Amino acid sequence: MRKRSAVALTIVVSIGALAMFFPFLWTIITSISSGAGLSASPQLIPDDPSLSAYAELFDNTPFLQVIANSLGLAIATTVAQLATSALAAYAFSRLPFRGSNLVFAIYLATMMIPIQVLIVPLFIEIKMLGLLNTYVGVLLPGLASAFGVFLLRQAMNAVPRELDEAAKIDGAGHFRIFGTIVMPLVGPAVATLTVFAFMSSWNSFLWPLIVLRTPELQTLPIALAGLQGQYTTQWDVLMAGSVISVIPMVLIYIFAQRYVIQGVANTGIK
């Protein structure tokens, strides 16, 4: 009975994995099918695979500059969120103060506010600060993350406080405890936040579209949207851009997969 259940579960999981992977596989196949368009759907195994779509993409568009723009913004956003989230999480976890639970609850409640509601006030604020069409204007709203604070706080709560007490006996202060004891022990949660923060910035479309006006400053999602107008029926070029946009996320997830799963699991352990 158990063997049958295991086999059935394996079949179901395999079908689900195939269903999720197939669109990405079809995107890759389309990108290497030269001249693929609405009238010529690509085959599962292309007769004459070619990288001409990638060559055309980089030759006729500033795609390399666009990738550099998105990569720089994603790295800056990730570093900023790691720093602010780690410090705030340590304060909520190790420096309790009157009303800290209420402040934390209110801070988490901001996660329920859709970004569309904040677009207009954020735009007015950025405009008054003179930061339109600048990367600083794109970065400011994403310097802190309520999700990141929650994730790291839950991980820090699982770290035994006896380690803090032993360090204090040896004369360590909060900054030393934070840097040498707590942070090394919440590595999986940090890796999880790194992946989520990088992915959020890398895929961000609406806010960069509103703030950035110069084509040279545009990010990858905006450039991909522009390709739909420039290469309307050249699906191989469109899919080549899509494949390039996915590659960094696949690589970073493969590298941090074990830590991501462990970090998400640890947030539910009290």
UniProtKB/TrEMBL annotation:
Location(s), subcellular: Cell membrane
A GO cellular-component term linked to this record: plasma membrane
UniProt-listed PROSITE patterns: ABC_TM1 (PS50928)
TM ranges: 7-29, 66-90, 102-124, 130-152, 173-199, 237-256
Keyword Transmembrane: yes
Predominant place of localization: membrane
Family in the record: Belongs to the binding-protein-dependent transport system permease family.
Protein name stated in the entry: Sugar ABC transporter permease
Originating species: Marisediminicola antarctica
Taxonomy of the source species: Bacteria, Bacillati, Actinomycetota, Actinomycetes, Micrococcales
